[in-house]
């Protein structure tokens, strides 16, 4: 039998719970050979709050779980009867497998995202400076330099917009 990748739609916030339940149920029912991989794609995001840098995991596809399995009545029933599962994603009543190209794109994206943490700031976002000579000023992010972990922020000083380069640890989102 051929294992293929499928997408399961879940209730919001239930992705990891669904993953654990499916893995446990497959082990309990002896279906480990037919349900190979259950995956909740995540990426790391760097956030700074109160001067402390924290790395958080964020779901790439909220409310979706990827599963590599052999599709038969038993595995399909196991997935559909799992609490938190809405159903398989696809145009008809039968589950539609992802194409090999789609799977490759998704797995490549996950590996790339895992390799580099993303800052949680984006151009145009309003931030507040929490330390340094510009403490308590607010500004607008103009440019983010992920390699140096700095950003260029436009701060209004004496009524004039002035570009200032700040470290990730010196700012927080408003």
Textual characterization of the structure:
By secondary structure, this protein is α+β, with helices and mostly antiparallel strands. It folds into two domains: 4-119, 2-Layer Sandwich (Alpha-Beta Plaits), CATH 3.30.70.940; 126-173, SH3 type barrels (Roll), CATH 2.30.30. 22% of the residues lie in helices and 41% in strands. The chain is built from three helices and twelve strands; from the N terminus they run E-H-E-E-E-E-H-E-H-E-E-E-E-E-E. The strands form three sheets. A five-stranded antiparallel sheet has the order 11-10-9-8-12, with no helix packed on it. A four-stranded antiparallel sheet has the order 2-5-1-6, covered by helices on one side. A three-stranded mixed sheet has the order 4-3-7. A hairpin with an 8-residue loop joins strand 8 (126-129) and strand 9 (138-145). It is elongated. The termini are far apart. The relative contact order is 0.18.
């Amino acid at each position: 039998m051929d294992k293929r990748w499928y997408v399961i739609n879940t209730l919001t916030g239930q992705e990891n719970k669904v993953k654990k339940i499916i893995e446990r149920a497959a082990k309990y029912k002896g279906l480990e050979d037919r349900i190979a991989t259950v995956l909740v794609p995540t990426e790391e995001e760097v956030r700074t709050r109160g001067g402390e840098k924290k790395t958080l995991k964020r779901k790439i596809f909220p409310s979706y779980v990827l599963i590599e399995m052999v599709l038969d009545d038993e595995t399909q029933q196991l997935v559909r009867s799992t609490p938190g599962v809405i159903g398989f994603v696809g145009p008809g009543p039968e589950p539609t497998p992802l194409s090999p190209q789609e799977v490759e794109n998704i797995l490549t994206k996950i590996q790339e995202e895992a390799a580099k943490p993303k800052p949680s700031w984006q151009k145009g976002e309003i931030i507040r400076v929490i330390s340094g000579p510009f403490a308590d000023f607010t500004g607008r992010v103009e440019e983010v330099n992920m390699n140096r972990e700095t950003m260029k922020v436009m701060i209004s000083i004496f009524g004039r917009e002035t570009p200032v380069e700040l470290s990730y640890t010196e700012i927080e989102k408003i």
